[in-house]
Design brief:
Its cofactor is FAD. The chain is an alpha/beta fold. The chain contains 15 helices and 18 strands. A hairpin with a 5-residue loop joins strand 13 and strand 14. The protein starts with a strand and ends with a helix.
């Protein structure tokens, strides 16, 4: 019997899940609903897109679908290391054994969409844009959406509600998941949602190629101020640069900027390399770009009965500090696919085991995102020394000393729960320091 699967959210994990399910033959019919417009036809605002880094965890998930790796790499840049720009003008380079694949999130979504439409016809796959999810009914096994329609004669959008039945409902609709909200009507569901103490604004440097300042295109470039403000920039495949400035919410130097001239002066004073390539147009755009907050999510389970599943940020949204949000979301798909193989597509068993096997990693992922990297300058110096020592000892005595924390996160597929267990002492130290700092403010 063919199972009707409704996926809410056409982000990387929702689209990759469609790839995995459809390659299992005629067992599944897929309907994907996305609240935003089709990125293949609509030019997205730059405030809604951002660069992502895919390590082996994410790339191995994508690589298992034939034909995906090549077009993804065609819109990506491989990063062989990170350059830390110090305030005195000097730099420190940290190489990577395995390059990171960096690209714009929207471009990744477009590749996944194109590959789906090329491989599967409308009989097995339907993708619906401009359809926000409004309510879910786990008992009746149906979900309600709004279809945003444009009346061409008067050009006024109208909204029409409709309800769809499902055999399996997948909430891949992000940290503010509507599907996850439905879990609160079920027994014993617990979910902790909190804002990460650091906010960010995106930055786009279209003229970086024409600058006299040369920043190596195969490196991630970072700058850090004493108050914890962090600037990250990387090259895109078209020669431009993009990134984000991350700043502690309580020490937000960006909020006080009131003109493009003040924005330019801020970057020229604190991040002179960026200040020299930023144009007045980008300074004005940066000023008007909204400040983005990061919501982290920890849930005690990712499934409901035999018919509802949470994936990606809907299940375990994490801060961007460790660059694992998309990687973990893509890995979710692999875990679920392996469970379908193990239990011969029995959804009841596969969904239950998804929570059993994935929830510890989801919890550890958020903990690592919150406390792997310290915000205090004193602990940051200690962190650098710890990393150097760990890398050295592992290189000399690999059987006795594990890889460094950064190497485990970025260059392996070791489960997040194992990484947290290996470095629980350090994470606990950073956590205590962060709590103490918050209490003193």
């Amino acid at each position: 019997m063919i199972k009707k699967v409704v996926i809410v959210g056409a982000g990387p994990s929702g689209l990759l899940l469609a790839h995995y399910l459809l390659r299992r033959g005629d067992r599944y019919q897929i309907d994907i609903y996305e609240r935003r417009s089709d990125p293949q036809t609509i030019s997205f605002s730059k405030s809604r897109t951002y660069p992502i880094s895919l390590n082996e965890r994410g790339m191995s998930a994508l690589r298992q679908i034939e034909g995906l790796e090549e077009p993804i790499k065609a819109v990506s840049v491989e990063m062989t290391g990170t350059v830390f720009h110090q305030t005195n003008g000097k730099t420190r380079f940290t190489p990577r054994k395995k390059p990171l694949v960096t690209l714009d999130r929207t471009n990744l979504v477009i590749v996944l969409l194109k590959q789906l439409s090329q491989k599967y016809d409308n009989n097995r796959l339907q993708i619906h844009f401009d359809c926000p999810c409004t309510t879910v009914d786990f008992v009746a096994k149906n979900v309600t959406f709004q279809s945003v329609l444009a009346e061409s004669s008067i050009e006024i959008p109208t909204k029409k509600e409709f309800t769809i039945d499902y055999d399996l409902l997948v909430g891949a609709d992000g940290s503010r998941s509507v599907v996850r909200e439905g879990f609160f009507s079920t027994k014993l569901f617990e979910c902790e949602a909190k804002y990460y103490p650091t906010d960010y604004k995106s930055i786009f440097l279209d003229n970086a190629n024409n600058s006299n300042i040369h920043l190596k295109s195969d490196n991630i470039h970072t700058w850090r101020l004493d108050d914890g403000t962090l600037m990250v920039a990387l090259n895109q495949v078209d020669g431009t640069m993009s990134g984000a400035i991350n700043f502690p919410r309580e020490k937000n130097q960006v909020a006080g900027l009131s003109s493009a001239k003040e924005v330019l002066k801020f970057f020229q004073d604190h991040f002179p390399v960026i200040g020299q390539v930023m144009t007045e147009e980008e300074a004005e755009a940066f000023l008007n770009r909204p400040i983005s907050r990061i919501l982290t999510i920890r849930c005690n389970r990712y499934h409901q009965s035999d018919s509802v599943l949470l994936m990606g940020d809907a299940a375990h949204a994490v801060s961007s500090s460790i660059g694992q949000g998309c990687n973990a979301a893509l890995e979710d798909v692999v875990v679920f696919d392996n469970l379908l193989n193990e239990y011969n597509d029995d959804l009841a068993d596969a969904l239950e085991q998804f929570t059993v096997r994935r929830q510890p990693d989801g919890y550890a992922l958020v903990e690592l995102g919150d406390y792997a990297f310290p915000s205090s300058t004193k602990l940051f110096v200690e962190f650098i020394l710890r990393e150097f020592l760990a890398k050295t000892l592992h290189r000399l005595f690999p059987k006795f000393f594990p890889p460094s924390l950064i190497d485990l996160i970025f260059e392996t597929t070791v489960p997040y729960s194992e990484i947290l267990n290996s470095y629980k002492g350090w994470v606990s130290k950073v956590k205590k320091s962060s709590i103490l700092a918050a209490e003193q403010e």
